Amino acid sequence: MNLDEYYDVAFDLVKQAGDIIRDRINRPKDIMIKSCEVDLVTESDQQVEKLFMDGITAKFPDHRFIGEETTSSGEKVQLTNSPTWVIDPIDGTMNFVHALPHTCISVALLIEKITEIAFIYNPVLEQLFTARRGQGAFMNGKPIKVSGEKELKKALLMQEMGTSRDPEKMKIVFENFQIFTSKVHGMRALGSAALNMCMVALGGADANFEFGIHIWDIAAGDLIVREAGGVCLDPAGGKLDLLSRRVLCASSIELAKEISVLISQYYPERD
Ligand code: IPD
C-alpha cells in the first residue's frame, strides 16, 4: 500500500476534474432530474465521475468506488475494508446549474473504513482543500485551522435545505432555523455540503449540520474538519457514522455538544 502514490494520482485527477467544472459552469447544460425536481444531475457530473474512476482503475485495478452518480437511487451502499474512493463529482450541482461559483469535486479514500486522504476542490474560486490522516488540513497548500469557537451565541452556523422536499424533512429544517437563528451570530448555507464543512475547517464558519446528506457529501469534509482541529459527530452527539445520512461538525467539542442538545432530530433511511 502506497498512500503517497494514491495521493499523487488522485491529486492529478481532481485537478483535471476541476478543469471540466470550471470550463462548463458558464455554459448551457443538459440537466436531468433524479429523486425530485430539486435533485439534479448534469452530463458533467457523470463525465467527472467517469474520468476519476477510469483514472484510478487504470493505476489501481483492485480499488473500489462509491460514486454519487453510479449509485442508483435507493441502492444500498456497500462499504468494505478494501481501498474505496468515495466520490461526489460535483457537490453543489444546483449551484453549478445556476453558475453560482460554490461548487466542487469531493473525493475521499477509505482503507479498512478509515479515511486516509481527502480532496475538496472548488475550481471556480480556486480553493483546493486537502488532508491526509494525521498530517493536518490545507487550503491551496497552506495549513488551515478551525476557529476554536466554543459558544453558540458567538457562532456562525450553517444548515442546508437539502435536495429533498419531503414535508417531514422540511419541517425539521424550518424548526432548526427557528431554534438557532435567535441564538447565534448568523445562519448561512453555501449550497454544497462539502464546502460548508470546508468553511468550518477554514475557521470561516463555526459549525455545520445537515440531515439527508450521503456518504459522498461528507466523507472528505469529515477528514478535512478533523485534521483542521475540529470535530465531526452525529447530530445527537454520538460518533459520526458516514452512512447514517446525518452530520454535525464544529470548531470545538463544546460547541458541538451545545448544538446537539438543542437540535430537532431527523433520522433518514441509511445509505
Ligand atoms: C447536495 C449538496 C447540497 C446538500 C444536499 C446534497 P449534490 O449534493 O451538497 O448542499 O444540501 O444534501 O445532496 O446533489 O449537489 O451533489
From TrEMBL:
Cofactor(s) needed for function: Mg(2+)
Pathway note: Polyol metabolism; myo-inositol biosynthesis; myo-inositol from D-glucose 6-phosphate: step 2/2
Signal peptide: none
EC number: 3.1.3.25
Residues the entry annotates as binding Mg(2+) 2: I90
Pfam family, one: Inositol_P
The protein, known as: Inositol-1-monophosphatase
The organism of origin for this protein: Aphidius gifuensis
Record lineage: Eukaryota, Metazoa, Ecdysozoa, Arthropoda, Hexapoda
